[in-house]
Amino acid sequence: MADTARVEIRVDRDSCVGSGACALFEPEFFDQSEDDGLVVPRVREAGPEALPALRRAASRCPARAIALVPSGGQGSAGWDRAD
User: Residue 81 pLDDT > 60, yes or no?
Assistant: First the structure.
């Protein structure tokens, strides 16, 4: 059976420095606020097919303000690890 677990996208706006790397490289999932330039997630959850892109965005964040958490507690192995 295929892993159908979803991943929750969490951002820590208090840690965000507004570099825009997440929005630049993964605009499907991240944007920047026009008010303060900080990260704004476009979605709260995504399917496993989005995991490589989300990991890239999280790994490019200089403030490490993006966290990936398995939804529902299934398929947690490697969800928060950047490639």
Answer: no
